[in-house]
Amino acid sequence: MTQTSMLRRITDFANRADPYPLYEELRRTPVLHEEEDGPYLVSTYHDIKALLHDPRISSDAANLASLGQDELSGPEATGLPPSFIRLDPPEHDRLRRIANSSFGPPHRPHRVDNMLGQLEEIVTGLIDGLGDAREIDLVDQFAYPFPVTVICRLLGVPREDEPRFRSWVDPIVAGLDPDTRTAAGAERAAQEARLQLGMYLNGLVEQRARETRDDMLSDLVHSHGPDGAMTTMEVLSTSVLLLIAGHETTVNLITNGMLTLLRYPEILERLRHDPGLSVRIVEELLRYEPPVQLLPQRTCIADIEVRGVTIPKGSRIWLVLGAGNRDPHRFTDPDRFDPDRRDIQHLGFGSGIHSCFGAPLARLETQIALSELARRLDSPRLVADPPPYRQNAVLRGPRHLGIAIDGVK
Amino acid sequence: MTRLVVDLNRCQGYAQCAFLAPDVFAMHGEEALVYNPRAEREQRERVARAVAACPVQAITADGLDGHPEGASDAAH
Amino acid sequence: MPPTDYLDWLRREGRIVIVGASLAGLRGAETLRAEGFGGELTMIGDEPYEPYDRPPLSKAVLLGRAAPHHTELPRRREIDAKWRLGVAATGLDTEAKRVRLADGDEVEYDRLLIATGVRARPWPREDEARLEGVFTLRTRDDAAALLRRLKAGPRRVFVIGAGFTGSEIASACREQGIAVTVAERAGAPLVGALGGVIGAVAADMHRENGVDLRTGVMVTALEGDPVGRVRAVHLSDESIVEADVVIVSLGATRNTDWLAGSGLGAGPRGIACDAGCRAFDFRGIVTDDVFVAGDVARSPHALFGYQFLSLEHWGNAVAQAEIAAHNMISPSAARRPHLWVPAFWSSQFGVNIKSVGVPPMGEQIMITQGSPAERRFVGVYGYQGRTIAAVSFDNTRWLEFYQREIERGGPFPVEFPTVDRRPEGRVPVDAGFPDPALPTHGPMVTLSGHSPTDQQLVFHPAHH
Q1: Which of A191, A201, C39, C113 would bridge C18 by S-S if both were Cys, CB 3.0 to 4.6 A apart?
Q2: C422 and C276 assigned to the same domain
Q3: Chain C partners of A302 at a C-beta cutoff of 8 Å?
Q4: Sign (positive/negative) of CA torsion C429, C432, C433, C437?
Q5: Are residues A353 and C397, on separate chains, in Cβ contact within 8 Å?
Q6: What is the Cα–Cα distance from A289 to A293, expressed in whole angstroms?
Q7: Are residues C350 and C430 in the same domain?
Q8: Could you give the 3-state DSSP secondary structure of residue C175?
Q9: Whether pLDDT at C436 is above 70
C-alpha cells in the first residue's frame, strides 16, 4: 500500500487538474479497499458497467446515512427530502416517471426538441454579450449563465424574472462547492437564497395551478398519471433538483469541452467548418473528460464478488467513471481525445436506472455551445493551462477558463 | 431518405433517440420504442444526434452506423 | 489444392450464394465483404423486395408510425451482389453445387449460405383460409393488406393464437379502438414462450385493454358468407364469434421444403448445423461448403446442455449470420462458435417485454424485482438448481445482470437480496409451462433434442 492512500490522493486538490495518471494506477487494482471502514473503489470499465446494472447495489441515501458516511454528498444536498437520485425502486422509479412526464417522451416528446431555437438564441445572446473583450472567462461569462437560463425557460420562469432567479441560484450553487462552503457567510447566503427561490417557485406553482401553460411547472402541477399527482412540496423539490443537478454538470461539460478543444486545435478547426462534428465531440468528451468523475453513493445489500474480491454486504462502493472511461481494455488509445472513434460507449452519464435524467438536454446544450463558440471566437487561446479548478473531486471542472481572443465574429 | 433499424435486444429504453429525434423515434409506454424505419431527409441531423447519443449504440442508419462491431467503419 | 490455397482462392474469386435475402442474408453478405471476400456474391430471395425488417410490421406499421413498404434495412456497407429477387430457390444439388430457381435457372456456388427463414403457418383448412378477410402476418405484403382492412374500420378482428405476434396485433387493434377477440388453445397468452405464471400477467393485460380473450379453446371453423367473405369464427366451446377480419397467428414453419432431396439434415424444425454454422447432412455428418443462419437454423448450444435450439429471434439472425459468414471464408483454426445467448423482445399494450436465456427450459420461476401486479418486474427461471433464463416487463435495464447469471450458471433459487424485492418474490413457484407434447402458438425458442438427425425430425425423401 502506498503511504498516502489512493482515496486521499483522488480527493487531494493537487491532483484535480489531471487525475488520469492516478486512475491508471488505480486500475491496476480493479477493486481497491484501503481502509477498514473505507469504500471499495472500482475502476475498470466492465466492472463499473456491471455494478451499475446489479440489483444488489443500492443508491438509497438511508443506507449511507446508517453507515454515518456521506462526506462527498452530491449536488442535491438541498435540505429537501431525498430526490430520486438517492432512492431505490420502486420509489425511485415512481418519482422519476412523474418528473419525466413533464420533460420527455412518452408524455412530452417534443419538449426538448422545441428548445432548439431557444438554445441557439441564448447562446447567440451570451456570445454577443462578450462585446469586444480581448480576454474572457468562459465559466462566468458563458458556461455558468447558459444552463440556468435554459432551465428557466423549461420550467416557465417569465423572462423578466430571469435575472432575479439567477441571483438566487448563484449562491445556492456556490454553496455546494466544498471550496466556498467553508467561507464565512456563504452557507447563510445559500440558505437565504434557497428560501427566496422556494417562495418564488411556490408563487409560480400557484399561478400554474390556476392557469396552465406549455411549460414543465404546469405539467408537474397538473400531473395525474397512474403514479398519482405531485404535491407542491414534490414539485418544488423536483424543480430544485433539475436546477441544481443539471447545472454544475452542464457547466463542467461545456468548460471541459472548450478546454479540450483548445488543447486539440485541429479538432477545433474542423468544428469551425463542420458544426455537425459537435455531436461526436460531445460523446467523446463525456468519455474523455466526464463532468461526473465518480459515483460515491452506492452500497451493496448483499455480499458480492468482483474480480475474485468479496465486497461484504453493507460496504460502500465508489464507481470511478473517469477511470473506467480511460480503460485500455475497453477503448483503444484511451488517453487520446478522438471524436472520430467509432466506439464511444462511455460511462459519462452513468448507466442503468440512475443514468442521467437531463442527458438529452445536456447533449444539445453542449453541442450548440461548442459549435457556436468555435465558429464565433476569433483565434481563441488558453490563458493558463491548466486552468484553476474547483475543489470538488466528484463534479470536476475548471473554476475559471481564461481565453484570449482577437474578437467575436 | 435514411433507412434505419434499432437492435431492440440492445435497447434499454434510455429514450435519448425519442428526445432528440421525436418525429422518428417514439416511446410507447415507459420503455418500449417504436420508430419509423425510413426517416425523412430533413430529419437527418436529428437522426445523427440520436444515433450518436444511444447509450447502447443500438441504432444503425445508412451512413450513420452507431454499431460498435461489424463493418461500421465502412464508408457509405 | 491444399486447404489454405483453396481458401485464398475462394476469398479472392470464389462464388458464394446466399439463399434468403432478409435480415440474416443481408448481414451475412455484409460480413463477407467486410472480412475481405472479393469473389462473386449472389443473393436469392423469394420476395421481390430488397431486405427489409419484419418486427415493425406487427408494431410500428399497425400503429401507423411506419409504412408497410418502407421498412428496408439500412446497409452497413456496399455488398456488390447479384440480386435474384422475386424468385424462390426450389432445389439444391449439393453434389453439383447448384441451387435451382423457380424460373428454371440454376446458380452454381463454391460455398452456400442458407438463410431462408420461416413463413407464417397458414390456417390448415385451405378453403377457409382463402376466405376474404383471413390474414396471416409475416411479409410486408401481408402487413399492407391487413393495414388496409384495419383502416377501413372492421366491426371485429379475431386473432387466432396469443403468441407474441398475435398479442402485438391485438394490442395495435385496441389502441385504435377496434374490437378484438383473441383465442388461445393454452390457458393464457405467451404460455409457450414464458410459462403460465407470466402468461397470467399477459392475460390480465389483454383484458384490461379491452381484448375479449378466450383461453383453453380452439378455433374449429371459419365461416364465410355467400360471397366468400369471412363472417364468423366457431370455437371448440361451441360459441360463435362474428368477425369480419381473422388473423391466423399460429406460429411459423421453417422454409426447408426446397431442400427435399438435397441430402441435408433439413425438416420442419429447421436445418441442423454445428456451432460453427456448417449444415449437417441427413446422416449427421457435417458438410464443408453449406452454412446455415437465422430462423431456419437449429444448432447446439453449450449453455443449454448442447441441445439443438431453433431461435426465431432477430438478434440471433444477425449474430449467427455474422459467425456463418466469418467461418465460410476462414481456416478452421480461425473459426468461431455461435454462442449467442437467446434474447428477444416484444412490446404490447404499452409494456416492453424482454427475455434472455431459454425460459421454456425453466422448471420454476421467481419474481426477483418489482411486481407483476404493477406490470414492472423481473422474473428468473431455474432449471436443476441454476438460473437458465429471465424475463422483464418494463425493467429491461436489469436484464444484463441476469444474462451474466445465466452465462455463469448462477444458482437458483435466487437467494440474494435485490433492490425492490417484494415478499411474494422470495419463493420459487412452478413456471407453468405446458406439456411440450401439446403445441402452443409461437414459442420462439424450440429445444429440439441432442441429435442433428433427431427422430422427431421428418426427413423428406427425394422427389425425383
Answers
A1: C113
A2: no
A3: 416-417
A4: positive
A5: yes
A6: 8
A7: yes
A8: helix
A9: no
